[in-house]
Amino acid sequence: MAQPALKDTRVEEFEKKQEWWWVAEKRRSGRLDYLRKAIWKKGAIGGLYAPGVKTDLEQAVLTTNMAKSLEGSPDPYVVKSAKLFAHILDNKTIFITDHAQLVGYTGSLPNTMNWNPSIASILNSEVFNDPISIPEPVDKNQAVIQEIVDYWAGKTDLDKMMPVFDIDDLMKMLSGSIGWGVPLARGGYSNKDYEYIMTGNRGFQDIIDELDKKMDEIDDAVHEPTANKEIAMMYDRLNNWEAMRIALEAGIRIAKRYARLARIMAENFEEDPQRKEELLKIAAACEQVPAHPPRNLQESFQYDIFIQMMSRTEAIEGAWPCRPDYYHGPYYDKDVHIDKTLTKEEALDLVGEFLIRAAEVCQFKPKWAREGLQGIDGTWVWTMGGVDEKGKDACNDLTIAFMQAARLVRVANPTFAFRWHPQVKDEVMREVFECIRHGLGYPSIRNDPILVSNAMHWHGHPIEEARLWVHQACMSPNPTTKHGYQPMRMANATANCAKIIEYVFTSGFDPVVNMQVGAETPDVSTFKNFEAFFDAWVLQMRTIFSILVRSVNRARLLAPTMTPRPFLSGLSERCIESGQDTCDPSIARGNAWITAFTWVENADSLAAVKKLVFDEGKYSLAELKDALAKNWNGYEDMRLDFVKNAPKWGNDDDDVDRIMLRCLDACAKFSKELKCPCGNNWPILPENVSGNIHYANIVGALPNGRRLGDALYDGGISPGPGLDKKGPTAVLKSCGKIDHVTQGRAFLLNQRLSPTQLAGEKGFQLWKAYMRTWADLGLDHVQFNMVDDATLRSAQKDPEKYQEVIVRVAGYSAHFVDISRKTQDNIIQRTVQGLG
Amino acid sequence: MTTCQECKNFFPLEEDPNRGDCVQRVKDPRQAYYQAKPVNAEDDASACASFQKKQQ
């Protein structure tokens, strides 16, 4: 099955035309071609799910029925949670796709989206009201959904948590004006203790044996002839351990169900001897993992897939933190180079399928999440490259295989983020470049030495642990170590930062949601100088960040008892050791950050106010306030003045760049005053996903000349589309003025390059020179779109022909045809930088 | 009453023949696969559209 699908002489022609999607189709094996085309498109198109993709009612019914049967049970809540989890794994429908070598999916059928009704009633209502994804027969199933929605009303995690939050903060947060997401431990981005579970030292059964030992010891201890607080608390530890054991045992059982299905297929249905052998291999793999450590590459991938699938049964996961070349690399080396049980081509098939298995993962998401992550289900940003704990180059042959497989299967999700460092070999950089040149929009490039220092600066991770970082979501580094991994990043610490500058003009009143959200700063027209104006900006920033962070802190403190995660805890050394839940802040170092959406508008707006109002006195603040309140209507000449004659970020212009640094300094200072329950800091991380489109109708007119409804900048520290007029080096120089260690957690930079200019060896050398400048200036991130305007405009006109064109949106990639017209236009408007 | 154990799609568990899997071949618009759903041997299959009498 590892032979190319079709020999086609047109491949060279497609290469010349840079139609890389056709090249991929012709070059990949028959197996990969089948599996790639077998994927149901799960990312929402614009904000709506694709026809044929359906909400999975089976798991929702299983969850609800089990919850009802546990109502009268005397079990502690954490044990009930584990039993619910086990019931789903024991009873869900499983399947094995033709030609597949890896198995496991979040839903019960390939076209279904997992729906966990126990997490949030607001999500359940969206399932009920979704116009497309209710399975046939709609009337009957809508009644089933109604019953489930009714049962969970008042019982979901969010329903239980809401009464114990600060109601004022909660209303502001849920208004949708300043935040994005909800503060829940079972809804966000879970990193994992990969150093504990993915290093080949243990499988689930080994952990269960350890749990049994722990429980026996505590059982003896609590029955000693004494009594004290410690003994009283030991019962909670026993409950947590018991729950972890139930969850892990269920994990082993579902793997054995897959093994059994593979054997049934081999022994009863399959006639092709080669496929029969493959099915028996699948069976052997699923009998081995996750119960025991993997023995080869296939089992290592299978182990990882099972863990991800189970984690997504327990929670709604919006990200996929991992480092697959690092943790699976030793198995690739063993199979391909040492034991020679796999050829490189066969290994490439497995790697490609591993990407496909991840690409098809889906859980039903609320509309605001779908709009913010157009075209994908979540940000599966896989970390590649980097260094090991001793600081040595960790790139390996599997790093290269992942880059090659990505060009063959061309999925938009997962994407890669490559940890660049000075020791990376040229052959690896060339593979990375080829992916970018083929228009995948990934890998994004991360500056490893900067980010290791950053992790130490902000969160105090020791250097050996800081070096083992993965992306917890799109951008934020987090170590995969015992005390370093963060079990959950709650997405609502995501600030719609354009509101900071907007609220300076409205004294904190939000005209879109019609409520007082920000600080009641004085009427803007009373400010006599820029310093007073800037002070108001700082107060609005501190107010918005505090509202969001307070709710996450509260949720994190309550999570161990109110929303426990026994499965995730069972994969964690610190939880196995302590008997505490994975979210318990007392056993974690902390790795919190505030995602700063719509950030750069602040610098451009402040610079415009400084120049045109205070320095030149062309306009009064009262005039500007009126113009913004009227969405610039009647003030078009003035608006154009603010667009054209005020300095803009990204042009190496000190007037605006100094303001950017001043804003970041103010945030960095406040980040150290804000503390998470682990006692650690809350640095900001400017990036956007597609929040710049989601917020277009929520953010009012701004002093950078933007009107209500206009797309916001594409995010992070990227200049506004078309506003960076001085070339790529000026962009890098502006961004290089930021201290990427001490002024924030990470800074996203989108750049567009010309595929024509970067063709061939010369193109690679040009790009390398650009990357040297980037590294020398100390930037922590950059990512590239390398698809030309002509192709993108053709795709807008004739989407059917360009289904496979991929673009970099922000911290993620998506198929161009799956994003809204507004987002498409925003990408086309980005400046194409000429290098050299 | 027709029960699952009379169907050729029913594969009993070795350790507990009263339980097993209903294994079926499915072709959807994008892919073909085998699916397995846990069932009890005595479950009512009289309304099951996929029921196929097991050959004795």
Describe the structure.
The complex is a heterodimer of chains A (836) and B (56). Chain A has 836 residues and is α/β, with parallel strands linked by helices. Chain A has a domain of 29 residues. Chain A is built from 34 helices and 21 strands. The radius of gyration of chain A is 26 Å and the shape is globular. Chain A starts with 10 loop residues before the first helix and ends with a strand. In chain A, 59% of the residues are buried. Chain B is built from no helices and three strands. At the A-B interface, helix 3, strand 2 and helix 12 of A face strand 2 and strand 3 of B.
Provide a compact summary of the structure.
With 836 residues, chain A is α/β, with parallel strands linked by helices.
Strands of the widest sheet of chain A, in order across it, are 6-7-8-18-17-21
**Termini gap of chain A:** 44 Å
Q: What do the pLDDT scores of chain B average to?
A: 96
Structural class per helix/strand content of chain A?
Answer: alpha/beta
Largest sheet properties of chain A: 6 strands, mixed
Mean pLDDT of chain A: 95
The global form of chain A is globular
Given the structure, what is the number of helices of chain B?
0
Largest sheet of chain B: 3 strands, antiparallel
Most extensive interface: A-B, 24 and 16 residues
**Percentage beta strand of chain A:** 5-15%
Structural class of chain B: mainly beta
Unreliable segments of 5+ consecutive residues of chain B: none
**Would you report the number of β strands of chain B?**
3
Described by its quaternary structure, the protein is heterodimer
Could you spell the SSE succession of chain B in H and E letters? EEE
- The poorly predicted ranges of chain A are none
Rounded to the nearest angstrom, the distance between the terminal CA atoms of chain B is 18 Å
- Helical segment tally of chain A? 34
